[in-house]
Design goal:
Layout (H helix, E strand, L loop, with lengths): L10 E4 L6 H31 L6 H27 L6 E3 H34 L4 H4 L2 H26 L9 E2 L6 H6 L6 H34 L4 H29 L7 H23 L2 H23 L9
Parallel strand pairs: 1-3
Antiparallel strand pairs: 1-2
Helix pairs in contact: 1-2, 1-9, 1-10, 2-3, 2-9, 3-5, 3-7, 3-8, 5-7, 7-8, 8-9
Length: about 325
């Protein structure tokens, strides 16, 4: 490669989904509905857990942070995806593309580690209930959360370090609605075989390995739960089933996209939508409708908000009395 050809491409053209106006309108309504519902649902979980002292426990602390992370997952690519639906030229700058990949993998890596932490939390709560609050103290929870963000950051930076200086001098068309490593690397002007392997090893095998570790840990916990017959075990089983559902929803698309990312498949775009939009929407649905404590706490929050609104209305000064 001649040095004069390096980094000729300064922006990428995102091909998106379709040119049909009718389908674009349907996609706009679909994406907007799911995005708003996801943001409101996750923020409601965070607000409920913060405001209700009955939920100030390690499990709900981790759940609140999962919901907070899901608001980030939803907001990294989805707003631009919605905005680009009716744009003729869906472009993103090289720096914008790199920034988007950085946040996608930082938040995604953090959520991956946090799900492992949540599995450990359930293991301790079920298998060592008498020592649960001692082991999962506030200090421990904060340390585990900090470790999750640190590992997510390292995971993202480790990949960016190898691709941030890639030369782009040919096609700038990316068959996607957002930037990610597999399609980004394919557009480089050099032999990217080693980089492809690094991405597969970093994102793909780690995702698959973490997924199997989580599934095995949940199977082990379920076997332990099955040996008991008390009401507490039934509650633990319900909580675990919610966690397993979230794990499958989160890791399923990741494994397909990153374990066999080259050549990229058309289905990758739809799996990416699932990870960026559907999974963050499903998390509050799963944890809300399968958790009685959350439903009761939300009911208390709504009653408190409604009572505050009524009291504010009653105490508001009325100027009509002077007439």
């Amino acid at each position: 490669m001649d040095g004069r050809n390096h980094s000729v491409v300064s922006e990428f053209l995102l091909l998106g989904f379709t040119c049909s106006l009718e389908i674009q309108i349907l996609l706009f309504l679909f994406f907007t509905t799911f995005y708003i519902a996801s943001m409101l649902g996750n923020l409601l979980i965070v607000l409920t857990i913060i405001s209700d002292h009955h939920l100030h426990s390690p499990m709900y602390f981790l759940l609140a942070n999962l919901s907070f992370i899901d608001t980030g997952v939803s907001s990294i690519a989805t707003p631009k995806m919605i905005y680009d639906l009716f744009r003729k030229h869906k472009v993103i700058s090289l720096k914008g593309c790199i920034t988007q990949m950085f946040f996608i993998h930082t938040v995604g890596g953090t959520e991956m580690v946090l799900l492992i932490v949540m599995a450990c939390d359930r293991y301790i709560a079920i298998c060592k209930p008498l020592h649960y609050l001692t082991i999962m103290s506030s200090k421990t929870c904060i340390s585990l959360l900090a470790a999750s963000w640190t590992i997510g950051l390292i995971h993202s930076v480790a990949q960016l370090a190898f691709v941030v200086n890639l030369p782009f001098c040919g096609s700038n068309k990316m068959d996607s609605f957002y930037c990610d490593f597999p399609r980004f690397i394919k557009l480089a002007c050099i032999d990217t075989y080693r980089l492809e392997f690094l991405v597969t090893a970093n994102s793909g095998f780690i995702s698959m390995g973490t997924f199997f570790i989580l599934i095995l840990s949940y199977i082990f916990i379920l076997v332990t739960v099955r040996k008991h017959s008390s009401g507490g075990s039934s509650k633990a089983l319900s909580t675990l089933s919610a966690h397993i559902t979230v794990v499958v929803l989160f890791f399923g698309p990741c494994i397909v996209v990153y374990v066999w990312p080259f050549p990229t498949l058309p289905i990758d775009k739809f799996l990416a939508i699932f990870d960026a939009l559907i999974t963050p929407f499903m998390n509050p649905v799963i944890y809300t409708f399968r958790n009685k404590e959350m439903k009761v706490a939300m009911r208390r929050l709504f009653i408190k908000a409604f009572s505050f609104r009524n009291s504010s209305f009653i105490n508001r000064p009325r100027n009509s009395e002077s007439f």
